[in-house]
Amino acid sequence: MHIRAVTFDCWGTLLLDGPGSDERYKPHRLSGIEKVLEGLGVEAPRQRLSEAYEQSGQRLAHTWNKNRDVPVKAHVIALLEALDSTLPRRIGPAGLGALMEAYATPALMAPPAVDRGAIAALRALANNGIALSVVSNTMRTPGTILGQILERAGLTAFKVMTFSDECGIRKPNPNIFHLTLRQLGVAPEHAVHVGDDPILDVEGAREAGMAVIQVVGDGRATAPMKPDGVVRDLRELPMALAALAGSTAA
């Protein structure tokens, strides 16, 4: 196999925290939103705000279960509508913008941990002429913020960063992989995806026609569909890719 591109999942791969950890930012989100609403003259008791947050999460989950996604603006509007259906119209564009910032940015204040081997692995791959990209689902923290977290951690080698909230497609839908590979100018048979989730990453990338390496802490594949390789962390990735290329060489 001639590997020309490698795509990376974010949560649970480049970032050690899994996607569920994004919910730890809920108190900061609610605090920021409450402060903005108070400044706009809107009373929103914390308990009611928390309930609206959960209701908006149910709407998001319904969308996500269809392998679709929406931008952070839609998150905030759903939360406001759960509080009061008239709120989105009443607060105006400036107020909505302030609420979006309060909702989106808490992860910048306490960012998730980054895989310690990521910088060296990305540098080694880039030095070999391999195009690097991110292909990741987002939760409540949008792709613009995840991109800033990666950049602050020194992970700046990505030519393309595809986040589900920006393109409207969620893994395991193969279209999110194809969208990224088209931007890279690389065919699926020359690309490898690296991710931790057995369905979103392993099955999704395989359906897109890519090879896939699963990141699993104990080094044991967990996917119903067997990946092409397994690593415990990203320090092992360059060797795993070299083995994959060698084992599939024609």
Q: What's the CATH C level of the largest domain? A: Alpha Beta
Estimate the mean pLDDT confidence. Answer: 93
**What is the terminal-to-terminal distance?**
7 Å
Please work out how many helical segments DSSP would assign.
11
Which parts are unreliable, with pLDDT below 50 for 5 consecutive residues or more?
A: none
Approximate shape: elongated
CATH superfamily of the largest domain: HAD superfamily/HAD-like
DSSP, total strands: 6
Strand composition percent: 5-15%
Give the count of structural domains.
2
Q: Please trace the helix and strand order, writing H or E for each element.
A: EHHHHHHEHEHHEHEEH
The major beta sheet can be summarized as: 6 strands, parallel
Rg, alpha carbons:
19 Å
Classification by helices and strands: alpha/beta
Highlighted features:
250 residues, alpha/beta, Rossmann fold, 2 domains, six-stranded parallel sheet, 6 strands
Molecular structure report:
With 250 residues, the chain is an alpha/beta fold. The protein has 2 domains: 5-18 and 113-247, HAD superfamily/HAD-like (Rossmann fold, 3-Layer(aba) Sandwich); 20-109. Helices cover 49% and strands 11% of the residues. The protein is built from 11 helices and 6 strands. It has helices at 26-39, 46-64, 72-83, 87-104, 106-109, 118-127, 143-152, 164-167, 175-184, 198-207, 237-247; strands at 5-8, 131-136, 160-163, 191-195, 211-215, 229-231. It has a 6-stranded parallel sheet with strand order 3-2-1-4-5-6, with helices on both faces. Helix 7 (143-152) links the parallel strand 2 and strand 3 (160-163). Helix 1 (26-39) packs across helix 4 (87-104), helix 2 (46-64) packs across helix 3 and helix 3 packs across helix 4 (87-104). It is elongated. It starts with a strand and ends with a helix. The mean pLDDT is 93.
